[in-house]
Amino acid sequence: MTKDSISLSARDRLARLFDGGEFTELDAFAKVSGNLSGVITAYGYVDSNPIYAFAQDSTVNDGALTRVQADKISKIYDMAAKTGLPVVGIYDSFGADLNDGISAMTSYGELILKASNLSGVVPQISIVAGICAGASAILAVSADFVVMSKSAELFITPNTEVKDLAQNAAENGTASLIAEDDFDAIEKVKKILLKLPQNNLSPVPLFEYDEPDGAFYDNAEGIANAVCDLESVIELSKDLGTASYTALATIGGAAVGICATNKTDGKLTSLDCSKLARFVRMCDAFAIPIITFVDTEGFDNSESSNKSGAVLQMAKLASAYAEATTIKISVVTGKAYGPSYITLAGKGSNADLVFAVDNAVISALEPLAAVEFLSHDKLKGTDDLDKSRETLVNEYIKNEASAVVAAEKMCIDGIISVGEIRKTLINAIEIMAGKRVSRLPKKHSNSPF
Q1: Residues 6+ away with beta carbon under 8 Å from 179
Q2: Cβ neighbours of residue 101 closer than 8 Å, sequence gap 6 or more
Q3: Domain of 303?
Q4: Chain centre to alpha carbon of residue 108
């Protein structure tokens, strides 16, 4: 049997997670009707940083959640709240133990409450290594990140129409990453943990780093790899949406969140907006600087997108950026039109600092639409309509929508070359390190989430 075909036991999964395979188990002798509880809870170190973790044991009553199992997991959440340490949950269970009846349902409710209370306080990561069904799925997805093994199953109730549950979870945004197997899932979680602070009051991690050696490519992945430290980029939710890109990385050794809008040439759909908003809120919760690379013609207002609540998702994205108090730096690397500019790079609602490359186009309207609206009379009677329209568009970009014009109107803070992006960002992150923002007192916003 090869490594790739092995499904690890709960204890082996924890051993793979913790440094040197060593961890301190809690409540090891807790039993249910003479049997083990079906979950192993522990604390230890991952890359020399302390964390808490639990792993459901599917060999004990299929890992079914009982009152005792819930109490063990609950203790992990309580200790994480007291000490400000991350929590990793490894899920492999068919759900609640029916013998516990209503008691098991109450237990799930208590766990979901504690996970919700910890949200934004300490990082929470779920590994779906086997079956994760019913209320257990809700608990798992309540985490900041969900990493699924490609053979795992995550559902509330079984759906025979969906053949590949892991891929489906990736495409609808439930899973942040899909792993080949248990080994790969655990390694991916380790890499994510390394980029996160211990809690919302801890500083972001700092690392030694190597300079990137890749050429600059005019797309999201190419930009990230050219600007971020060598081999530091971890793309997240890559199967959700088609035009957006989100990743954890480091720039100059400092952990950052990367948002980019030109993964493809398409406009931002409702799925892209939801993906970016969720990522921005996660970064903001842990004061991780948000670097946004803007190159988009705007939001997709097509009929199919509107059916998915496109305007609502656009408002969701705008609200996520506006509410975020962490460092926010935007670089316009191409096009930035209308509402997309306001949302992603607007000085009023989003960014602390905005830079643009010298050939960027920043406009209230798409240039062709602006020409049709503002200069339509100039197109009358022309012998070559297309050529005349192209000439007017170029004139509009030069006179009204260039980076120079945006700088003159103080809509951006500076014009830089592609080769200066990395150095500019390193300096900007350093100078903004002491950022402090006070908001109006309130319980919470009622944003469109």
Answers
A1: 147, 148, 149, 150, 185, 187, 188
A2: none
A3: 220-360+402-431
A4: 26
- CATH code of the domain in which 416 resides: 3.90.226.10
Domain-terminating residue out of 150, 177, 194? 194
In a domain, 49, yes or no: yes
Backbone angles phi, psi at 338, to 5 degrees: 50, -130
pLDDT digits 0-9 by tens, 306-330: 555 678 888 999 999 999 999 999 9
Split into its structural domains, the chain has a count of: 2
Among 43-57, 149-163, 278-292, 298-312, the range scoring the smallest mean pLDDT is: 298-312
Q: Please work out, in degrees rounded to the nearest 5, the angle formed at the alpha carbon of residue 328 by the alpha carbons of 143 and 340.
A: 90
Is 443 inside a domain boundary?
no
Q: How far is CA 348 from CA 77, 318, 365, 398, in A?
A: 39, 11, 18, 24
Q: What is the pLDDT of residues 12-50, one digit of tens each?
A: 999 999 999 999 999 999 987 777 888 999 999 999 999
Joined together, the tokens standing for residue 52 give 């808490």
**CA–CA separation, 338 vs 255, rounded Å?**
30
Angle between helix axes 310-323 and 270-285 (nearest 10 degrees) is 20
pLDDT of the residue at 4? 43
Beta bridge partner(s), residue 51: 44
Q: How far is CA 444 from CA 109, 279, 441, in A?
A: 22, 19, 9
pLDDT at 63 over 90: no
**Tokens at residue 3, please?**
């490594």
**Residues 160 and 229 occupy one common structural domain:** no
What integer pLDDT is reported at residue 2 of this predicted model? 38
Same domain, 28 and 123: yes
**CB-based contact 69:38 (threshold 8 Å):** yes
